[in-house]
Amino acid sequence: MPRRKTSLKRKRADKKRHLRNLRVKTSLKKTLKKFQALLSAKNISEAKTYLMKVFSELDKAAKKKVIHSNTAKRKKSRLARRLGKTT
User: Fold this and answer.
1) Which residues of 40-64 are buried (b: 16+ CB within 10 A; e: fewer)?
2) Of 13, 22, 87, 18, nearest to 48 (Cα)?
3) What is the three-class DSSP state of 50?
4) pTM metric for this prediction
5) pLDDT higher than 90, residue 6
6) Share of the chain above pLDDT 90, in %
């Protein structure tokens, strides 16, 4: 258990940051799964519109430094390529 004031504050901040990161990651996973479901169901028109939402979620997560920016770019590229293959 930390004793110093700064250590206690750091612990509180870490907990808040962890919860925020968790919230962002779970929402990102949900959107990715929904997009995958749209692709597997062959709903190409809906998937195209939903892809913008997925891109937005990835960019926001990268901006908040929840995921690395290159990871977001890589995922965006792969999703777009996968959508292109199904059309």
Assistant:
1) eeeeeeebeebbeebbebbeebbee
2) 87
3) helix
4) 0.85
5) yes
6) 92
Mean pLDDT of the chain: 95
Q: What is the residue extent of each domain of the chain?
A: 5-86
| Fold classification of 5-86 (topology level) | Methane Monooxygenase Hydroxylase; Chain G, domain 1 (1.20.58)
Name the amino acid, one letter, at 19. Answer: L
Q: Quote the pLDDT of residue 17.
A: 96
What are 33-40's contacts with CB under 8 Å, separation 24+?
Answer: 35/79, 39/82, 39/83, 39/86
